[in-house]
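To assess whether the prediction recovers the assembly geometry, we first specified each molecular entity separately, as shown.
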Amino acid sequence: MVKFADDRYYLESHEWAKLEEDGTVVVGISDHAQEALGDVVFVELPEVGDELVAKSEAGVVESVKAASDIYTPISGVVSAINEQLEESPEIVNDFPYDEGWFFKIRPSDSTELSSLLSVEKYREICEE
Amino acid sequence: MVNFAGWDMPIRYDSQIEEHHAVRKSVGVFDVSHMAIIEIFGNASQLLLGKLLANDISRLRVPGKALYSAMLDFSGHVIDDLIVYFLANDRYLLVVNCVNREKDIAWFQQRMRHMDCELNEREDLSILAIQGPDALSKTTEILGGAYCSTLESLTEFQGAWCEEYFIARTGYTGERGLEIMLPATPAKELWKKLLLHGVRPIGLGARDTLRLEAGMNLYGNDMDETVTPFESNMAATVVLEKREFIGSEALRLHQSPRILVGLIMNDKGILRPHYPVFMENELVGEITSGAFSPTLGTSIALARVNKTDGNLTVEIRGRRMSVALVRPPFVRNGKPVCNTW
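The predicted structure of the complete assembly is given in tokenized form:
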């Protein structure tokens, strides 16, 4: 069963964005995405300090099947990256919604979050 | 599921990487019924195959012994690669690539006109490949009876009929293993029994990474009708001396700097088909097959290049990544092997 986390927003391209208490936004990919990709073997992340524009390329996830671009759901400056992914990319498959996060971003405009997909909308897209 | 030359086949049953490790460490089973099985029989069979195959069919003298060979066109390019089993002087069994089935059959039929031999495609047979260090013991445990004595009598790269099963010690993984050809109904039963005995089903994804680690070519990726066996790391399967076969003349005149080599990624990132290969700033070729190697824990590739006397890099998303040049295979019998060029 594909899981959906209901405490966050989504992009049609299967990334999720979750607002933390400190005002940063964590980004990762959905369970649906990791399932479709198959075993993740390498993740190319942005660098801390990179300025990203919403819906632009922020990295690449390589699975046994293919290389896929990762898009950032919102604009801002990268404040942290998940360094664990370098040694253990498979945690993206095992825990897509928590340990398998990709990067954190300090949003330049947190109202962008409300323009993203709700979990209900995202679920509909996946089930189509 | 994916459409593979008209066959619905699973890329993976579960985790592709775990499937891969299962074959390297214990045993897995592949449903490779899509491969085409062709019988050639009649007095002129050996004469025909001597003309059609780049490897020397007359080397096969022990019944059941198999030979891997390219089949070439008149310009020396690869029509297909295949396994041929010698059953008797007037009887051979061939296994050819599914994508080339119609083309191969047409080629055989054209060449065998006015010759005392015939062709029969065995569409009734399925093929199960049981591969891995435990493949023989598991299969012996399950099959029992006459099948076991047949199995035990076989040496590497040899097959034999036992009732309606053709059992062979061959494979496409670089591990010990079997390929069993049998009618569809018993094939289903054997599949179920194997799974019940803990043999893991393996999809096309792991089949590809296993054969790549084993340094085995995939038709359509690593060779096709635009390249010769010499440009495809298949020189060892071509016997030119004192022989005339289709393509032999072209091969004798053939001069090409292009060769198929192995690459191992020195850095992070995955090598994939068609990525360009550079030496300094010169484009010297491209990757033909590339993937993450679960056994090595890094990416590996086969690449066709026209130069090897310098440091090679592969361009991935605009960045040049350093790779090591090696002679395939990358893995044999579960262990990494590293033969520098």
